[in-house]
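Shipment paperwork, digital attachment
Item: protein structure file
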Amino acid sequence: MKIYNHFYKIVIKSLTLPTPAWVQILRRNYVIITLLLALNFIVATPAMGANLSGDLLKQPATEITVSLGNSANELKFEPNHLEFEAGKRYQLRLTNPSQLKHYFTAKDFADSIWTQKIQAGKVEIKGAIHELELKPGAEAEWVFVPLKSGTYGLRCPIPGHTEAGMIGEIAIRN
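Attachment content:
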């Protein structure tokens, strides 16, 4: 009721011109309807979000494999350019076939997605992840949904790896 009184004072009483009673009633009703619609939207948003996530989890994940290095120990991501579409579910399979450990580091990308899970061996991790370390011969699976469009950098921050070309680009399109 306090919100209504506040809006009433702003909308109705701030007008200095004398207005007929029926115009004031229309204005007051307009304020009430506007508030009710706004509150309805605020309350409905979490339910709609939960429904949307349920639909996304039923969606089959598009699988993409990225190698961190290769058997010849070349310092590169294969492929080094990844494209995803916002609102779709993906399963990123990361492999390290090289004799060296590597990192899949893409903090800004990780901040623009919703991670459902990361699985490595018999361990499943949930929550915000910014970097994955893959030891020689390791594999990991990252299931996520991109949320925010943009172009993000990918790199392996081990000294010398970025400089040798272990960099890439990740694009999220609407």
